[in-house]
């Protein structure tokens, strides 16, 4: 997930995770495990 976050221009993995949850309603881990 960190590699994806940095590739998309996020400075921190946590910033990406918060954005992802806001947009999808799931954390990246929840999305992966669904």
Q: How would you describe what is shown here?
A:
The structure is a single chain. The mean pLDDT is 94. The chain has 3 helices and no strands. By secondary structure, the chain is mainly α. The chain has one domain. 71% of the residues lie in helices and 0% in strands. It has helices at residues 2-7, 13-24, 28-33.
How many structural units, i.e. domains?
1
Distinct helical segment count: 3
Helix content: over 70%
Strand content: under 5%
Structural class: mainly alpha
Q: Quick one: how many beta strands? A: 0
Report mean pLDDT, rounded to a whole number. Answer: 94
* Shape assignment: globular
User: Helix-strand pattern, N to C?
Assistant: HHH
Quaternary structure classification? single chain
Largest sheet: none
Q: Which spans have pLDDT < 50 for at least 5 consecutive residues?
A: none
> CA-to-CA gap between the ends?
16 Å
Give the arrangement of secondary structure elements.
Blueprint: H1 2-7, H2 13-24, H3 28-33
What is the compact description of this entry?
This protein is 71% helix and 0% strand.
Keywords summarizing the entry:
71% helix; mainly alpha; 34 residues
């Amino acid at each position: 997930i960190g590699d994806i976050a940095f590739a998309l221009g996020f400075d921190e993995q946590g910033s990406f995770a918060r954005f992802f949850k806001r947009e999808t309603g799931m954390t990246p881990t929840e999305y992966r495990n669904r």
